Amino acid sequence: MNDKNIKLSYIFGGLSFIPLIGVLFGLISFIIGLIKFKYRGWILSLIGLGGIIFTIIIYSSLFYFGLKHRGGIYDELREKTVIMNLNVIVRNMEYFKNQNKKYPQSLTEYKKYFESKKDPMNNINDPIQTIMKNQEGLYYYELFNDNKNYLLFSKGIDGLSFTSDDIYPEINREELKNIGFNFKK
């Protein structure tokens, strides 16, 4: 094995530490190291394997801190997304009522209506419930007061209604006088 090939092999080994695409370089480095084992190829194999393990650790950490770990910036971002979705639903609920003279009986009816209008802003799935329970969960929606008012909120991390971690749309008090959304019955 000449010096040029050795240097190239070690470059592949070094490139294996680039997250994700480095796995390919790590595999190449590992295989070359096994083939050239008697020429200290085991060092090259270890470098390639190290790069692959590095990628696994990086992506496992991203998965854990992004989806499973509680607290921190990701929870805050999920909460902001939920509030934005709820605000859109409240706006669309009022549009629905203006068009149909009543609020929808369920979020499924709401979704079907806006899908027929080809409105992409009709997400009724609570992303917090989807992440926490690994299944689609809908926002809490309930009509009351002879279908003149409704409750709408996310059940939060615990998945239970009417607890301290529930997330509500951000509606200013002045707007509440003109719409059917309420924070409580």
Can you give a write-up of this model?
With 185 residues, the chain is mostly helical. The chain folds into two domains: 3-68, no CATH class; 73-176, Glycoprotein, Type 4 Pilin, CATH 3.30.700. The chain contains seven helices and two strands, in the order ααααααββα. It has a two-stranded antiparallel ribbon with strand order 1-2. Strand 1 and strand 2 (149-153) form a beta hairpin. Helix 1 runs antiparallel to helix 2 (22-35) and helix 2 packs antiparallel against helix 3. It is elongated. It starts with a helix and ends in a 9-residue tail after the last helix. The mean pLDDT is 84.
SSE diagram, text form:
Blueprint: H1 3-15, H2 22-35, H3 41-68, H4 73-100, H5 107-116, H6 127-133, E1 140-144, E2 149-153, H7 173-176
Antiparallel strand pairs: 1-2
Helix pairs in contact: 1-2, 1-3, 2-3
Question: How many domains, in number, for the residues?
Answer: 2
Structure class: mainly alpha
Number of helices: 7
- Through-space gap between termini: 79 Å
Rough outline? elongated
Helix percent reads 55-70%
User: What is the name of the CATH topology of the largest domain?
Assistant: Glycoprotein, Type 4 Pilin
Overall radius of gyration = 27 Å
Largest sheet: 2 strands, antiparallel
What is the average per-residue confidence, as pLDDT, rounded to a whole number? Answer: 84
Q: Order of strands across the widest beta sheet?
A: 1-2
Element-level helix/strand string: HHHHHHEEH
CATH class of the largest domain: Alpha Beta
Low-confidence stretches: none
Number of strands: 2
Strand content: 5-15%
